[in-house]
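User: Good morning. I'm curious how S-adenosyl-L-homocysteine would be positioned relative to this chain. Could you predict the structure with it bound?
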Amino acid sequence: MIRPLLEPTLRGWDMHLSPPQFDQLAIYAAELQRWNERVNLTAITDLPAIATRHFLDSLACARCWSSAPSSLFDIGTGAGFPGLVLKILWPSTKLLLVDSVGKKTAFLAHMVSLLNLPEVEIVTARAEALGQSQSYREQYVGGVARAVAALNVLSELCLPLVKVGGRFVAPKGADGAVEAAEARRAIGQLGGKLQGIMSVDLPGVDRRTLVIIDKLKPALSYLPRAVGVPDKRPL
Ligand code: SAH
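Assistant: Good morning! Here's the predicted structure, ligand included:
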């Protein structure tokens, strides 16, 4: 049962899921375990760890918004974290899931169809390419990305997709503030401003943080640079 693994922490956050939402998370966990036997999707495989390190860690991002954003992207989503979990929390949010690896997006397509989730777009691509595409650049009021790159690199991959007035949230480890300080210049060039850092306490997990960046103006037009460059020569 997944519900008892999630509910005490969610109650502490004043976050409430309905029985059908808990059912969706239970199906998600079971499918993740089943697929992971033949496709390497995650190193985290036992149910209590999935509940805490994937589901609660993803749901924590929602605390950075006062209400559900109308649109949200997740870059380098892997098996759907945090984006697909947030979609279960916010069914009316239009979601874009991006990963460059086809076996991961195949799993995402399977989950979206099994859970019957509307308005989810799944794209197998590099974020750098989407950031320079008119169909995606500055089209989203919200964005998340976890465990993809250091914040200076991540900002170049993600901030171009955020609309002016929108918000990007990156779950990080205990050193979120250090990464944010190192990414200050990059964030500025991308039209962002560090809004704050929220501390997240998960049961049995080292301290986590959420770095919150607001988009105040458009990113410089030549950003993001070509595929691979953000990583090779960080801003
Ligand atoms: N966000 C997930 C997966 C993290 S692993 C989680 O937290 O569990 C990092 C993922 O980012 C991998 O699946 C990798 O394929 C993807 N990735 C890395 N660089 C990328 C890029 N430039 N564009 C799109 N996806 C990328």
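Residues 124 and 131 are 14 Å apart (CA to CA). DSSP finds ten helices and seven strands in the chain.
Let me know if you'd like a different ligand tried.
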